[in-house]
Amino acid sequence: MSKKRNLYLNTIPVDEAREKYLKAVSELLTMPAERIPVTESLGRVTMSAVYARYSSPLFNASAMDGIAVSAKDTEGATETSPVILQENMYTVVDTGDPVHNPYDAVIMAEDIVETDDGVRITSSAAPWQHIRPIGEDIVAGEMILPGSHKIRAIDIGVLLSAGILEIDVVKKPDVAIFPTGTEIIEPGEEIKEGSILESNSRMFENMVTTMGGNGHRFPPIKDDYDEILSKVSDAADKYDMVIINAGSSAGTEDYTVHVLRELGEVIVHGVAIKPGKPVILAMVKNKPVIGLPGYPVSAYIGFENFVAPLLSIMGRRNEAVNEQIEAHISKRIVSSLKHKEYVRVKVGKVGDKFVAAPLARGAGAAMSLVRADGFCVIEQSSEGVEAGEKVKIELYRNKNEVENTIVIIGSHDLILDITADMMPGKYNNMFVSSTHVGSMGGLMSLKRGEAHMAPIHLLDEETGQYNVPYVKRLFKEPMAIIKGVNRIQGIMVKKGNPLGIKGIEDLENPDVRYVNRQRGAGTRVLLDYKLKQLGMDSEKINGYDREMATHMAVAAAVASESADAGMGVLSAARAMGLDFIEVAYEEYDFAAPVRFLELPHIKAFTDIIKSPEFKKELDRLGGYTSDASGRIVLV
């Protein structure tokens, strides 16, 4: 090729160049999945949501050293009127031991006195005290990790605890790196006048590795048009991205732009940045190819501005930085003066303030580490913090991710896992955070400004209408209901329904051990409504006061030997392989202030629940209809 100068008279701003290039190559940046052992997955990014195969604990486990008893055998025990339990009325347990039927409580070793007749106790035991129920930390079938999640050390521990041995992760982008220039020599070679030691490509190689890719550095190519063309053409066939270093400027032997025009399309040549103007952004054989200038600082700046964003998108990575922020704690935390306590929290930005919601605090609650966005420290000399108080949070996640997270607090449903998985895949750098406190708990959080929306399914007894009457009564500001799904609620029972339960009336049978949802949960409101309609007394239901926080936790209790029946949704029953007795259809919606409806992540959430992909997932779960999903109703 004859020598000629490669003049580029017009340069464009960096942001404009990057946006133009990303738009042109966006469809080329999707990486396939690869399956690897969980034990080798540290730092990799999940391809899609990962669901637990097993619960943790796998059984009802003692939380203390002591004795397992039947709570009813301890009724009436006091200091002045102790109860003696004979050997056949209890079994000795250590922390972590299984607790089997008929035992349903544990008494700590320090609260019993051994006698010749048995053990003496001086206070009655409450049902399920000091017992970690099956699935307390992880419930089989629930989402452990969403898609596009960078796997950490704690995640690996939880994945293995949940029975996951292999995992689908995003394939690492393979990047070919070509240094060019006749004057370039390798470090260690003899230096002659005019020689330049090549080092940029090694910098690129390691920057690619740091960003989760595989850098493949090739020996320098001389300023030979045909050789550069041949090497780049072959690399575009085999690699996910190609970087050409040097040869991008206006010199007579700067062939890169001519090669790329012959092989493909040059989107941008020349960017208004100093140093680093001679950047080439191109496509060859449907692969991004980037020409970076030869000067080290220019090369580095070009990489950071144009290669790094592509690698982030291809690898679905948003690198976290341990950053401290101030946030308002969403509920009171009581702490001992004896200890410095690290409380795991979920964090989101609602309006102009960060809000931190405390997670499970037990030492065995490994999932709280997985779910956490950071932690706040309660100092040893402090008794805790009050709800609404400002606290310092050290983030595990990138602050930008937290700011782009929709904070959902309220009733639990498996569809929240679906949206959390779909959001970052469909909308780059947008996320869903959900905390399960029941419908009324969610509305109270919304009222305090701690959430963007509250999932609710509250039946109003007077009108027979779902959700709208509650929102009208509780809020003065303009509110909206984002329609969610209609779902089937019913009684979950063991496969084959061994006790022959046909409906709510059968829950009064003293042999049926029931497990309930927490106060304020829509499922419990529905049960109470049905009990009132039937003239039934909740005190006659064995286990009415035993509470679980989610449908899946109730299903796990029924699937084990610790309960015979519990109210929940059909999808939870299916996930745990249970039989199901239909009770009612209900409306599961999302309450939100009108002022939040225009937020980008709220719009993204609404678009997701309208999407065909979402409806396909509902069909897979079963028990849902979605004709109105995403419709806005002003209250």
Automatic annotation (TrEMBL):
Domain called MoaB/Mog: residue spans: 176-313
One annotated GO molecular function: metal ion binding
Pfam family, one: MoCF_biosynth
Cofactor(s) recorded in Swiss-Prot or TrEMBL: Mg(2+)
GO BP term, pick one: Mo-molybdopterin cofactor biosynthetic process
Catalytic activity line of the entry: adenylyl-molybdopterin + molybdate = Mo-molybdopterin + AMP + H(+)
Name of this protein: Molybdopterin molybdenumtransferase
Organism whose genome encodes this protein: Lentihominibacter hominis
